[in-house]
Design goal:
Elements lengths: L5 H10 L22 H8 L3 H9 L7 H10 L4 H11 L15 H9 L4 E4 L5 E4 L1 H6 L9 H7 L1 H6 L3 H16 L6 H13 L1 H9 L8 E7 L3 E11 L7 E6 L5 H23 L14
Antiparallel strand pairs: 1-2, 1-5, 3-4, 4-5
Helix pairs in contact: 2-3, 2-4, 4-5, 8-11, 11-12
Length: 292
Amino acid sequence: MQTPNTLGEFLRARREQVHPQDVGLRAIGQRRTPGLRREEVALLAGISTDYYLRLEQGRDRTPSAQVTAALARALRLDPDQTAYLHGLVRPRPRPGRSRPQQVPAGTRLLVDSLPMPAFVEDRYLDVLAANPVARALSPNLRPGTNRLLAAFLDPGERELFEDWEQATAAAVGQLRAVTGAHADDPRMAALVGELALKSERFRKLWARHDVVRRAGGPARLHHLEVGALELHREKLVVAGTDDQVLVVYHAEPGTPSARALARLATIAAGSADESEESREPVRDPRWHLPPA
């Protein structure tokens, strides 16, 4: 089976997003393709056009560290993109059979104790653990759900996130960053294949080869029960695990969003109580009144 030409695809995608004037070159003649030409990248990187062509076509996949650094400068890559490029050319052993992810007991206790939405996800954006407030925020934050599949395929997620386009673009960039270190991972390949098959937007974003570090930031949501939410989203690496991240949503104290989160926590607590009651034997139906 032919191995994917990830290095060549990345170089071409980034080349097409750099304009000649961005790197001090004059755009001479009619240009049939966007961005830089191959010979222009080679010139800027100080290598031959033939060698650069071999890199893009996948006929050479192991450029030296010096050439890789020169290509990063020529393509104006940021630090995250540069690290990703170096990861693509660094030899790595093929991954073994993936094992089920286990959230550390202490981390799980922390998630359950937090009064705001909190959950743990793995490198594939599978939810591994979530507290009741997170599940009240979105049913797609239940353990076993893949957040990326939900984001692109569930219309409810688009209604929840006011900044859905920005959020999905960032999520794809984060997945791309992780994929660079796990190019031969069957689970990752299956996830990307399913998304590419079912979502045109994912296909377009994936083809850009954007690389985004997993980091927190602002989040604008609109929840059907508590309304608008202007939140901070923190992403904290869980030490001692294989790329697990603890995600926490919180609001500025005293703001309408903080009060809305408090209402969401009350809703979550009520749902949890109802769930516990449903597990108990009902001895007298008069104990349970129908909902108003």
